[in-house]
Automatic annotation (TrEMBL):
Organism field: Schistosoma curassoni
Subcellular localization, as worded in the UniProt entry: Membrane
InterPro entries hit by this protein: Tetraspanin/Peripherin, Tetraspanin_EC2_sf
Source domain of life: Eukaryota
Name of the molecule in the record: Tetraspanin
Taxonomic placement: Eukaryota, Metazoa, Spiralia, Lophotrochozoa, Platyhelminthes
Membrane topology: Multi-pass membrane protein
């Protein structure tokens, strides 16, 4: 799903579902694209001339605080290692995130199953 969103990303101004998915997921995971910012280089959907004009990577590739505000004012005019995550793909962080929370889901389902079985036996 995220790969499709990256492929179809336009701009945060576009307010498309794919653009919002990329915009909500990338900053907290400190990543950009699936395998890095280069995913957007040849994208025909990416609007490089939104509010900031002729940007190299999408705004969500900039480092942001927990309120989704850009941390360094030099980004997105200039992307570098200090102000952005353009070199960090989201594939690894997304995989880690899902693996971490899938354990909780699995334990919850096992617990619910045990409760249902024990409730059935008591009737």
């Amino acid at each position: 799903m995220f790969e499709t969103s990256v492929k179809n990303y336009q701009s945060m101004e576009a307010n498309t579902l794919d653009s919002l998915v990329v915009g909500l997921i990338s900053p907290p995971l400190q990543c950009c694209g699936v395998d890095g910012g280069s995913d957007f280089k040849n994208s025909t959907n990416f609007w490089k001339n939104d509010t900031y004009g002729d940007i190299e990577y999408p705004v969500p590739c900039c480092k942001m605080n927990q309120n989704y505000a850009i941390s360094d004012s030099t980004c997105p005019d200039k992307f570098d290692d200090n102000n952005s995550n353009y070199k960090n793909g989201c594939r690894g962080p997304l995989k880690e995130f899902f693996l971490k929370y899938m354990d909780y889901v699995a334990y919850g389902l096992i617990g619910a199953f045990v409760l249902l079985v024990s409730k059935d036996e008591s009737q």
